[in-house]
Amino acid sequence: MDKLEEALDQMSKMPQEQRDNLIEMEKKRVCVCKKCTSYSECMKDSNEGLFCILGKSSCKVNVDTCMCKDCPAYNSFNLKNDFYCMVGPEMDLRRG
């Protein structure tokens, strides 16, 4: 089990409120999604982010650039993909 799988496993064991609070804290602490030029007003209004963990955006994505590989979470969890706002979370992409 790698770091990402361990983190997701630990999160799955948390009560929903604790998990939601952790996600919000990580969005503020490490997530670079909101700084990406592909991040839209719709995503902001929906409080979206951490696409690498939570999945693709519910908003239309106008691809400009991708900052996923610049995110601290990318290196911390040894992520391999990018454009998560469009293609979905790392674990889904790993499973194919």
Strand residue content = under 5%
**Distance between termini?**
17 Å
Low-confidence regions:
none
Helix proportion range: 40-55%
The biggest beta sheet reads:
none
Quaternary structure type: single chain
Please give the radius of gyration in angstroms. 13 Å
Report the count of strand segments: 0
What is the H/E string? HHHHHHH
**Number of structural units classed as domains:** 1
Summarize model confidence as the mean pLDDT: 95
Counted by DSSP, the helix tally is 7
Class by SSE composition:
mainly alpha
Shape: globular
Q: What can you tell me about this protein's structure?
A:
The chain has 96 residues and is mostly helical. The protein has one domain. It has helices at residues 3-12, 16-29, 41-45, 51-54, 72-76, 84-87, 90-95. The longest helix has 14 residues, at 16-29. The chain is globular. The two termini are 17 Å apart. InterPro entries: Uncharacterised_AF2234. This is DUF2769 domain-containing protein.
What topology does this entry show?
Elements: H1 3-12, H2 16-29, H3 41-45, H4 51-54, H5 72-76, H6 84-87, H7 90-95
Quick synopsis:
With 96 residues, the protein is mostly helical. The chain has seven helices and no strands.
Features:
96 residues, mainly alpha, 7 helices, globular, DUF2769 domain-containing protein, Uncharacterised_AF2234
